[in-house]
Amino acid sequence: MNNRRADPPGPEAPAPAPTASTTPAVHADGLTVRRGTRTVLRHLGFTVPRGRITGLLGPSGCGKSTLMRAIVGTQAKVTGTLEVLGLPAGSAPLRSRIGYVTQAPSVYADLTIRQNLDYFAAILDPGRAAADRRHHNVTRAIADVDLTSHADSLAGNLSGGQRSRVSLAVALLGTPELLVLDEPTVGLDPVLRRDLWALFHRLAADRGATLLVSSHVMDEAERCHRLLLMREGELLADDTPEALRTRTGAETVEEAFLHLVDEATEQRTAGKETVR
Ligand SMILES: Nc1ncnc2c1ncn2[C@@H]1O[C@H](COP(=O)(O)OP(=O)(O)OP(=O)(O)O)[C@@H](O)[C@H]1O
């Protein structure tokens, strides 16, 4: 074994070629999205690091779902650069590497939780030879979202929060590298919200998964490693919760957000006055 420490590269050393582990999970530059006749995302530039939880926060209608749809490749009229796991967003090889949970739970009401997961597992990993692996993955995904005791209940008889956890379990089946979760904690009681955030942190820490989680509840921001703060289709900040609080002299991320909104409004007003 060679224990010699490698010399640090000098200034003239070429930058290492990006590898799977060094490319960010998401890289956007000049990202613009139009829906109908409106521009709903304007020139966004940001990166989402791998293996961390990035919160996408902003008021209702600011464009969080649109950005998530662009990242998973289901949004039309996307221009600018948008790379996901090193590939252009929407590329076919990304399909099995991304788990996406929309705001509306997508489960079959007339199947039990286990039958729902068996169905999606059979699509992801078909064939008789994979039966044991599928059974293991289904049981693990149900346990991940804390629904083991309800595994044989019909999805149609579950509460809204339970149904959205079944959707999350479906997304966890293929052990995706990137999980894109659109408001996963809406309608959950505080205990379930806490448990779900604990699960998100386990997925990042133990499996190295990258999570992009949207919310319009600012107290959830404190649970993220990084934050993308949005307002009216623009990015107000891309930073850690701590750096945001320090930079704005705020005690909470909510206060920091309001400070940044005021700052952006002042800048816009000043810009208009200069033009006049
Ligand atoms: N099909 C559509 N055609 C035109 N505009 C749309 C369409 N769907 C959404 N929009 C607009 O795009 C903007 C962004 O919507 P989006 O759903 O991305 O916001 P959001 O931040 O996810 O909101 P919420 O937190 O309420 O889910 C909104 O102003 C919305 O009115």
Quick structural gist:
The chain is an alpha/beta fold and 276 residues long. It has helices at residues 64-72, 113-124, 131-144, 160-172, 190-207, 241-248, 253-275, and strands spanning 26-35, 38-48, 53-57, 78-84, 87-88, 98-101, 178-181, 210-215, 226-231, 234-239. The chain has a 6-stranded mixed β-sheet, with helices on both faces.
Distance from N terminus to C terminus (CA atoms, Å) equals 70 Å
Radius of gyration computed on alpha carbons: 21 Å
Structural class, please? alpha/beta
Provide the low-confidence segments as ranges.
1-13
Give the CATH architecture: 3-Layer(aba) Sandwich
Give the strand order of the largest sheet, numbering strands 1, 2, ... along the chain. Answer: 6-7-8-3-9-10
Classify the fold: give the CATH topology. Answer: Rossmann fold
Count all strands and give the number.
10
> Secondary-structure element sequence?
EEEHEEEHHHEHEEEHH
Name of the CATH homologous superfamily: P-loop containing nucleotide triphosphate hydrolases
Biased composition (Pro residues): 8-17
Protein name: ABC transporter ATP-binding protein
GO molecular function: ATP binding
Domain ABC transporter: 26-257
Give an overview in words.
Helices cover 35% and strands 22% of the residues. It has a six-stranded mixed sheet with strand order 6-7-8-3-9-10, with helices on both faces. The protein is α/β, with parallel strands linked by helices. It has one domain (26-253): P-loop containing nucleotide triphosphate hydrolases (Rossmann fold), CATH 3.40.50. The chain starts with 25 loop residues before the first strand and ends with a helix. The chain has helices at residues 64-72, 113-124, 131-144, 160-172, 190-207, 241-248, 253-275; strands at residues 26-35, 38-48, 53-57, 78-84, 87-88, 98-101, 178-181, 210-215, 226-231, 234-239. It is built from seven helices and ten strands. The chain is globular, with a radius of gyration of 21 Å. The site of adenosine-5'-triphosphate has 13 residues, from strand 2 and helix 1. Residues 8-17 have a biased composition (Pro residues). This is ABC transporter ATP-binding protein. Keywords: ATP-binding, Nucleotide-binding. One of its GO terms (molecular function) is ATP binding. Residues 1-24 are annotated as: Disordered.
